[in-house]
Each structure stands twice: as C-alpha cells, then as structure tokens.
C-alpha cells in the first residue's frame, strides 16, 4: 500500500521558507515583495485560484495587487495594463490568470509580460531558458511536482520517468525538469500506442492528461512513485484526479491525493518565483 504524499505539508514548508526570506529582505534591505494578479471575466474556477493566490501572498508577507477586469475588456486594454505593471516598481511578479476570454489572444498577452516579472514562466524566453537549464523561474506546477518527488527521498537519476500529457504548462516542462535530474524520460499523450505497457515501465509516473480516473492500478508498476496533476470535477460534484486512486495506491510506493497533492504546491512555487523575481530585480542573489 502506497504512502500518501502530503502536498499541503510540503507546500506549507515551501511557504514557510519563502515567508522567512521575505521577512529577512524586508528587515535587512527594506525590500517589499509584490505580486500583481490580473483576472478577466467571471470564470468561477479562476476566481477561486486568484483568491487563493491573494491569500498566499498575505500568508508569506507579500503585497498583492489585484486587477479584476470586466469580461468585455479588449486585448488592447489588457496589454496596456500589462505594460503599466511592467514599469511599476512595486510589482515584482505579474500573473495573468488563464484562460482569457475568447476575443483575447493569450499568446500576445503572455509575450507582453516582461520576462523578469513572468512568475508563471510562460514567456518564450523563460521557456527557452528551461530548455537549456539556465532558468530563473520554473513553471509552478512542474516545479511543485519535483519538490513532491524530492520529498519522498527518491533519486531520479537513471529512473524511467513517464509523463502523460504534453501541454506547454505542465507536460513539456515537466519532462525537461526530470531530464535535468538525469531521469530517462518518455512523454505520452492521447495518440501514444501501447500506453499501458509504457506506463508499466515507469518508476516515476506523472499524469497530467486532464481525464478523470484515466490511469488505473493495472497500468502502474509495483513500487512506482505516482504524481497526479489532474483536477477533474465529476457529475456528482466530487473532485478527482487523472489517476484512479483506489486501485493505484495498491501498486504505488508513493502517491499524491486529489485534492491535497499537487494543487497546493502550484501556489507555493508561485510565491517562491515571486521572491526570486524581487531578489533579481534588486540585484540580490
Ligand atoms: N490557469 C490555470 N493554471 C494557471 C497557472 O498556473 N497560471 C495562470 N496564469 N493561469 C492558470
């Protein structure tokens, strides 16, 4: 039976580290850390995420600046705001909550954020830096997954790592981070043949495909570390991951629950990136 990885506990530890360093920077250097969060429209899930990000800022002692814009905001207005925030010295990090309304080009908005303030690490410059291993910011969810794997004491070197999902936000950067830790990495997706066989070879399995209960226990190698990035709402209102927990926990050595696994890590890593941004902008390493 698997040990459950407690994402809330690991994320609390990360937030504590960030809060301590933020307090030290404030006391010793007079530096205040600030994050701007922009939300456009009324997507209820986005509203919850943005509220959680604001709460996390308070908890670690950052200033947060919220910009809640109407659904009808034009792309030009949003780009104008991003440009103002790029120049605002109180703002160390800028996060534009996705998805944006359909009439706004997400790529144009991401590209407009100054790479130095891009705490999501979505800007092509930051994506490219991750490819060559010379990054300042890691994308929050994959970075959180790495921290969870680390918390199990698993050495990634030489392990067969399988990532299911190839999104720009999770799957692709996740594969790069596992590769940098010397994993042997396979990326699977909806067109992969023999998915079950590939998964059965995984010592470390990261699932980010966005389909409820997609990975079942019979696809998991005995003793594997299983990280479930999925967050799906079932018809009965219950949240569930991309991994069928009951069958998977019988095979895995470690497994993340949903909720309470990867979810809390994403915000903790966002706080860490915002602190890194503030230090870099102040010329502190
Ligand atoms: N929407 C869902 N996840 C994220 C995220 O990590 N960052 C942003 N900006 N939007 C999101």
What does the secondary structure layout of this molecule look like, with pairings?
Blueprint: E1 3-4, H1 7-29, E2 34-40, H2 44-60, E3 63-69, H3 75-87, E4 93-96, H4 106-112, H5 124-131, H6 140-151, E5 160-164, H7 171-180, E6 184-188, H8 195-200, E7 204-207, E8 225-228, E9 232-233, E10 239-240, H9 245-248, E11 254-255, H10 262-281
The structure holds guanine.
Quick recap of the structure?
By secondary structure, the protein is α/β, with parallel strands linked by helices. The chain folds into two domains: 30-115, Leucine Dehydrogenase, chain A, domain 1 (Rossmann fold, 3-Layer(aba) Sandwich), CATH 3.40.50.10860; 140-263, NAD(P)-binding Rossmann-like Domain (Rossmann fold, 3-Layer(aba) Sandwich). It is 42% helix and 15% strand.
